[in-house]
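LOG
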Amino acid sequence: MAASWLRALKSENKSDNTIRIYANAVNSFARFLLDQDAGYRPVADEEGTPGRPAPSELDEVHREHVQAYIAATIARTSPANAHQHFRALKTFFNWLTDEEEIDRTPMRTMKPPTVTENEVPVIPEADLVKLFRACKGKTYADRRDTAILLLFLDTGVRLSELTDRKVVDLDLDLMVLRVLGKKDKWRSVPFGRTAATALDRYLRAAAKHKGKALEEDMWLWWGDRGQKMHRFTIWGVGTMLKRRCAEAEIDPIHPHQFRHTFAHLWKVNGGNEDDLMRITGWSSRQMLSRYASSAGAERARSAHARLSPADRLG
């Protein structure tokens, strides 16, 4: 049923990243129910009534099973990740109901887990200098990694938005990258001259490494290991960033920190908020406030240094 659901999502033209997230959630839930050692275990209530056993049929999946999975996901990962899985499973069970595979969804009265907003730290400038120094070189991997990291810093794009790109999505003359964001919305993201130069060098290095120029319908990013070049996936980018941080001798950086750093630097330098929302693909100012909260105290101190009433009074 999960395979049928994913095919239905593809027919609805859902993005590769959306399908990947949904597939991970439903497959993880299935493993949780089927794993007798580390998965679902019935828990008796306070009155001693035994919990529901693991389901053997699809229509036996109960709210109790989903609740146990969400609780386990929170403990294993984070409330934010559990919230994402909750939304994916809710969509899955709604589809099963629409397809008349089950009479009603077990999640009809469930509420998503509460997600506490934690400020994501921006990347210190000193760490950025060390990171790009670690990528300094003329090898194919150096050219590729520099281009990827500069795009992250200069655009604030999400990991999947950067990685799931074809060559045709990149325009070096206009200096824009066409990306597919959330809710399957396309947008053109601008980048600067430094990133454009790095991208041009990467494309030339990729042509030499691959033995031919990258064509428009080919993936933009390629690995550097093995006799045959393979597409560079989100996991490859994550592994690369982890390795480069180790080489630079700095604390590990998550790709999403570049998004927060971009928003922070944009506001520090007096960037327009409407432009920031358009570049990042945010549709609500709530997201603007959420991302701008990172290093907000630093911006407040800088603003006060310029606008101090006592200092202006002289």
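LOG (cont.) second protein
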Amino acid sequence: MPSYTVDELAARAGVTVRTVRFYGTRGLLPPPVIGARRVGHYGPGHLSRLALIEELQRRGMTLAAIERYVEQLPPDLSAQDLAIHRALVASWAPESAEVITRRELERRAGRPLTAQDVDRLAAMGVLDRGDGDTTGDGRTDDARTDSGRTGDADTFRLDGSLLRLGVELLDVPIEHETILASRTVLLEHARAAAQELSRLFQEQVWNPYRESGEDPDHLTAMRSLSAHMQPMVVQALVTAFQRSLSEELRAAFRSR
């Protein structure tokens, strides 16, 4: 099995040594094996984790979100298993969020935005606010990984697909705390559904396909298979949620 020093690992992953060590302190990378002369040795699993983190970054995930994602992974995943996760992320994740200025945000929103408006949009998941922090490298281009921070207090990381709906909801009389509570409920149940679907996909689709030996390029096959399933699963989730919510609302009003 290949073994790398921290310098070799950083070079192969295309990051700095400080980034590798920073991820280690945050628990995103397991500690190296300490060999002779107290030299740390990393393996393919570390390289695969760095590649997965990079993919999650490209998809606009904050450092806090990446940490939560990595925490859900079994600690004994092989480099191949981590590569599978990366292929799934690449084919299922939405487009990366974009970083824009306050002026551009207001132009696209079509209205001036107060501090309360920005707080409400952040609570709805439409944007993340910048606060000038970085990942610990001192590199501003890495700042996008740290809890929604863009490295500038007057810039925002925006999910453009949600902006129009978010702006429309600004004038709806819903308390900020209610928005936060609603989002928490949705995220918790969405994560549970995603975990179960991931397990089902791996056990009933991916493992049988890999064992069949039909295609030696397993990762390309995984990306293609999951990409074809994505629209069907997303639509099924949306439809099921809409029907369930309608039934719950009808039941709630009938009981009054």
